[in-house]
Amino acid sequence: MKKIIISIMLFGVMGLLITSCKYDNYDKPNVYLKGALIYNNVDTVFVRQSSGNNIDQAAVYFNLFEPGWQKTYSTPIRVVVDAGGTFSSILFPATYKLVVPAGNGPFIASTDTTVVKLDGSKTINIPVTPYYLVRNFAPTLSASDSTVTANVKVDQIVTGANAKSIGSVYMYINRTAIVDGGNNLASVNISGGSITDPTKVILKAKIPNLAKISGLGIATNQKQFFVRIGVRINGSTEVYSSVKTVSLP
Q1: Domains (ranges, CATH) in the chain?
Q2: pTM of the full structure
Q3: Within 13 A of 49's CA, how many CA atoms are on the CB side?
């Protein structure tokens, strides 16, 4: 009887080991899906940087569904779009259905399903129509008083029944390339109602004296700073410019 019990136990352990090996031998995700949010095949649409590591709180994202694996559409693969309007996700080779949720981002995008076949790494662009785009952004710096000046054009793209108004236009300054409404050392804004000429929106803000800001944990003699324009849109989220740099002498 003892021999029978021992044999059964050994057989069970071997079964567990074999099962474990099978799980360990599954292929890992090995293909990349990369791309960007693009307007009119030319303009990248810049968005707010997602904060933290909680993918469920991503600022801008789209969903991928793998038919045949997920029985329902309740558990999609969420792909986060970064501040530069680009995305990159490592996946298993498969055929996916790509869906951009309505109202997700400062743009209008088709909510139709796009089929994406991944039999190798692939780069795709997702066409979107932003409510506004920031153009002609070239900030200048006055060395005498550390004032950054930007003269930008806020170009309204969506007109008619789907148009949305400008809440405010902001200029943000930060010590890193992550610069937006939640990440900045200094900012200035003008309300949408105060903008008389959207082709010439002028914003000025001073780079603060880092030595007077407690808790930064960085050298106070930093010379290069990062600047970005954000357009807050009523009834939507913020659309951004690209990030530019200015340098103190």
Answers
A1: 31-130 (2.60.40.1120), 132-247 (2.60.40.2060)
A2: 0.82
A3: 17
